[in-house]
Each structure stands twice: as structure tokens, then as C-alpha cells.
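Loading example: each entry is read as two labelled lines plus one structure line.
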Amino acid sequence: MSYYESCIHALPEGSDSASRLALVAKRLGYSGIIICNHTGYEKVFRPEAVLGISRIKVAFGIEVVAPNPRSLRSKVTAARGKYPFVAVHGGSEEMNRAACENPEVDMLVHPEEGKKVLGIATAKAAQKNQVAIGLDLSPLIRLRGNSRSRWLQIVERNIILARKFDLSFIITTCASSRLDLRAPRDLQALAEIAGLESFEAEEALRFPGHLLDDNCRKWLGPGVEIL
Amino acid sequence: MRSHLPVLRIRRRYIAFEVDCEGPVRQSDLAAELTLVQTSLWGDKGSSLNKIRLITFNGRFGLLRCAHSRIKETRAALATIYSINGNRAAIRVKGVSGTIKAATEKYIPRLSLSNAENERRRFELEGISGWIIHSRGREIDISPDEKNETKGSDTRYLGLTSFDLCGGCYYADGTADGVRQGYNSIQP
């Protein structure tokens, strides 16, 4: 099982506290969640309360938002030491590129926000630096009609490109309340609409767990670990 | 004469689900939203293949029927429900079964409606203040005083748990966790 939901926004950014999100996620069948508030909302409301909830792992990461590539680099370096999981809020072409060229970034979330597909150079950089592409399914849930079909077009292109360059996916809903959370099998069904294969979707739901385990080990350098 | 040969019988699946909504939900509103959502996602042709029909709904738990080969598509359509009659909502699938009897016995609890408690109590903690709207088990919903607390997520209430309140609210008349001790109170 070991499905993970990454990139959830808790109080004060979202409307539910970390422990409530953990409780609902456990009921839905997740074995762990990663709470990633945007920069500016890092101080989560009562993070120690999640210790009362058993059989679910709750990790605290960050989703970096930056106005330009230069400040992105400094913010990511500062966040890397503090958090086990660093995501970057993508959007414009240059921000996607800057995020993928940084080996300290774990995930690039909603790269399709600027209504542009990923470039070849960005995909190559992501492959080299092992940056996962976050497939944010919340537009599929929230939008209707023409805007949703436009979004599907862009995402299908991104998936084809990511398959070609062998990038890893992470499926998320970028939930900011418990009502935005969906069960893992619902997300699989939605991801198949967006164009992923069934086994790819399953792998994408497990991937954050592996990533988190790797990040929690003490790496001295690439390939060297302190035991 | 029998109307259908056994091999031509239509095979069905029954999906038991739970509605998580901020306000009360009526069966007619849910049925309307279901039709809207599935025609938006699958179109007219896809909806005719899905054969979704709402069988029962008691305000929280319900049962719907779909074609046996289109469970995944039905799940996807249910997952895209965002609001019901203007209230934020989400549908959680509890399980899938082949007969109404099995689905009801396995997945729908018999006493489901009576345990939500409505109480008007005040709550103040670490910059968040408001009225407790209702609490069920460990879950507590709060209507905040400042309405822009929830502007990022379209919801009306803040969701907390009793773990958030423990030890933070000593002055809230009597109890340490700020929630009334009573018949479905929260035991630490």
C-alpha cells in the first residue's frame, strides 16, 4: 500500500489543521502525507498535534514560491537544510527551467500553470538532476468544460515528454482543505483520464515515500552516506 | 417466458459512498450534481455506458449503481464532485459490491446520522477564534470570526481535531481541552 499524498497546505494557508488532514488521509487509505505550505506560511498551526494520530506518517516540507530564478536558488538552498522535502511552485518557463536545473529540488509542482508545455531543455535538466514532475489534478476536479479540456491538452503533452525523458511523476491534489483530498484509487482513475497508465499512476503515488526515505538519510555527497 | 437469457443479463455493480459536506445534502441535489458531473466529464455517450443511478441516500451514506465494467470511470466522475448545492463537498467511496444487500450490510453503518452534535461554543487559540459549529468523534468544525481565514480554500469552516485543542484552552469553562464533556465527548 504505502501511498503518499504530497503537497498539502495546512492551516494557516489552508483551512484545516495538520492533525485533521492526517486523520482524513488515514481514513482514505494513505500511509503518509507531506504538508508543504507555500513560502510565507511555513509556521503550521500546532504541528505537534499530529503525534496523537497513529499509523500515518506526517512530514513537513515546503513549497518554494519565488519571483525570479535568482531568489529561487537562494530560497531553495536555505530550505534544503530545514525540510526533508522541497517542492517548487512552477508556472513560467524560466521558473520551470530554474527549478529543474537545481539538484536540491525534489519536485516541480504545476509546471503547466503558465499554459505552456515543458520545454525539451527543461525535461533534460530534470532528468539530470532527478527532479520529479508534480501532476496536480486539482484543475481536473475543479474546472468544467472548455478550460478543463485545455488543461488536459497541456498535461497530455507534458506526460508524453516526461515519458520520453524517463522522468518520475508525483500525483497530488494540492489540497488546501480536507474536502480537496481524494482517495488513492480515485486519484488513479483521474490520472488515467489525464493520460497516465495504471501502473505509472500507482508508482507515482508511492514515489514520495521513497523520496522521503532517501532524504532523511545523511548523505555526505553524491553516493556517500554516513551510517 | 423469461425476458432475458442469463448470458444477456446486464451486470451491475453497487458503489457505497459517504458524502463529506459542509451543509445538509438532499437526495435530489446529489442526483442533479451526479448527472451534471458525469455529462461534463464523459459526455452523453459515456454517461449512457456508465449507467449511473442513485439508489438510496440517507443524508450521509448512499448507494449507487453502475455498469460492472465502468467502475473506474464512475469513480473518476465521483471524484470530480466539488460542491453540492453551493456547499463544498467531497464523495468518499466506501466499497463496491455486486448486490444491494451485500453493499448495504458491508459498507453502510446502520446508525449513521445521530452522532453529529450541534453546539454553540466559543473557541480561541493561537490567533484563531470562532464558534464551534459541530463536533463528531475527534473532529471539530469551527466557523472563524475572520472570514478571510478560509479564503484560500473556498470552505466555510475550519477543520480541527481534539488533538489541536488539548492543553491549549484551560479557561474554556471547566474542561482542559475546551470541548464539553458529555455523551459523545472526546476521551483523551
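Residues 95 and 151 of chain B are 33 Å apart (CA to CA).
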